[in-house]
Amino acid sequence: MRFKPRPIDPGIGPRGTYGELMREYREDSELSLEFVATKLGYDASAVSRFERAERSIPPDVPPKLDELFGTGRMFRSMYRMIKDDRHPGRWRLLADYEAQAVRIGTYAPQVVPGLLQTPDYARALLVDGELYGTDDEIDNATRERVARQSLLTRDDPPAYSAVLDEAVLHRVIGSSKTTYEQLASLLPRVDTIHTTIQVWPLALGGHPLLGGTTVLLTLSDGITGAWLEGSESGQLIEDMNEVRRRQRAYDRVCSRAPSPRESAGMIKAAMKEFRT
Fold first, then answer.
1. In what order do the strands lie in the sheet with 213-218?
2. Interatomic CA distance for residues 185 and 162, integer angstroms
3. How far apart are CA 120 and CA 180, in angstroms?
4. Do residues 163 and 253 touch, judged by C-beta distance below 8 A?
5. What is the DSSP string of 59-95?
6. Which residue ranges does the record assign to the HTH cro/C1-type domain (predicted)?
7. Residues contacting 59, CB < 8 A, separation 6+
8. Which residues make beta-bridge pairs with 105?
9. Residue 227 Cα to chain centre, angstroms
10. pTM score of the predicted model
11. What is the spatial distance between Cα 132 and Cα 126, in angstroms, rounded to a whole number?
12. What is the three-class DSSP state of 162?
């Protein structure tokens, strides 16, 4: 089963609007996905993802669209809008991919991953990030983030693994109480049928994934995507060679990190710093 997209939602920003226009021009011209894909030099599934804002538009696509649809430089001009968009619908894209994944592996160098965050911890991160202007916006974003976690408790949850950098355990987020409760909430999920959590000790030094959060999401047909996340950015990598490279790096990190049982001991030790 390949990734099944939701209907286009232009409210997700410039990339959604761009994709909607692609589809409208294609349908108005009575052209099939397969025909347009041939003209663009991509397969039909890739073009479908372009239209639904589920995949970044490569720079060679806009001029081909203008030539195909006779739109002058419209698609090329709009492409600049996509490149300048600070917050494309990436969180929706990640949530959609997570919901359809059968296996999720996460390396987190800075904070506890979103699927494991308590509501207070998630809210504190959103406040600290200064991306939302009002309390209502922060509350809504918190609810959306926490709602994603239901996939771990559904009847058919994905196999979920996470490796946290040891620094995550010692970083105060919100307050000592919030951080303590967050760490405590990890313990029941450290080693279960569906979840494992490990900690990468600072003493082990570096590894290829240190640069930022990496999430590897595998669908039921074996297709894997790599989600790379920074403080204000997120990008889905679908190039097979790049995904394989990151999967190998993640597998090495998992094999070198302490076992879940040993990692639980590290979490408990860190909790003592925040006990009030």
1. 195-200, 159-165, 103-108, 213-218, 224-229, 234-237
2. 14
3. 11
4. yes
5. TTHHHHHHHHHT-TTHHHHHHHHHHT-SS-THHHHHH
6. 21-76
7. 79
8. 161, 216
9. 5
10. 0.69
11. 7
12. strand
**Spatial separation of the C-alpha atoms in residues 148 and 93, rounded to whole Å:** 12
CA distance 177 to 121: 10
Contact (CB, 8 A) for 157 and 248 = no
> Smallest Cα–Cα separation from 42: which of 59, 18, 17, 21?
59
Tokens of 53: 């804002």
From the CB of residue 147, how many other CB atoms can be counted at a distance below 10 Å? 10
Contact yes or no for 122/68 (Cβ under 8 A) = no
Question: How would you label 235-247 residue by residue, b for 16+ Cβ within 10 Å and e otherwise?
Answer: ebbbeeeebeebb
pLDDT above 80 for 8: no
Continuous segment of H or E residues that includes residue 186: helix 176-186
What stretch of H or E contains 143?
A: helix 135-147
- Residue pLDDT, tens place only, 169-227: 999 999 999 999 999 999 999 999 999 999 999 999 999 898 889 999 998 878 898 99
Residue ranges of domains in the chain, CATH in brackets = 10-83 (1.10.260.40), 90-274 (3.30.870)
